[in-house]
Write a sequence for this structure.
């Protein structure tokens, strides 16, 4: 009897997981999520990851303005990129939205990842915002 109850429980869990996967977003998501706003003041974050864990940055963005988020300081021997995706808030032409960046810790180390909101051809004179994450992978 216990065997049948155990199998039934496993079946329910499996069906629930399959239904959730079939109906949901197929993109990976981060173990830690950090939201970055284009209109907020300069920000910093401290991120500690174990190898295999991920960090997700959700960034307000509107590439149609000419401003974009420039990523620098990523040591790909410590942190590997998993996803770089933009999801608009609407179907309107020029709509803003959310840029999602996901990185996975792959080796012990530390780095300072910087996101700079600027016009790529003139970051020195057009920076609107800077966000820095001190990331340690252990």
């Amino acid at each position: 009897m216990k065997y049948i109850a155990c199998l039934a429980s496993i079946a329910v869990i499996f069906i629930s997981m399959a239904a959730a996967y079939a109906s949901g977003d197929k993109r990976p998501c981060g173990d830690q999520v950090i939201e970055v706003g284009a209109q907020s003041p300069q920000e910093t974050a401290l991120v500690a990851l174990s190898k295999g864990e991920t960090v997700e940055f959700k960034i307000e963005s509107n590439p149609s303005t000419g401003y974009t988020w420039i990523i620098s300081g990523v040591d790909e021997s410590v942190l590997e990129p998993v996803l770089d995706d933009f999801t608009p808030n609407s179907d309107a032409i020029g709509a803003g939205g959310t840029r999602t960046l996901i990185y996975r810790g792959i080796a012990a180390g530390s780095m300072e990842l910087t996101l700079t909101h600027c016009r790529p051809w003139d970051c020195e004179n057009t920076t609107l915002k800077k966000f820095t994450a001190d990331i340690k992978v252990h």
About this structure: The chain has one domain: 28-137.
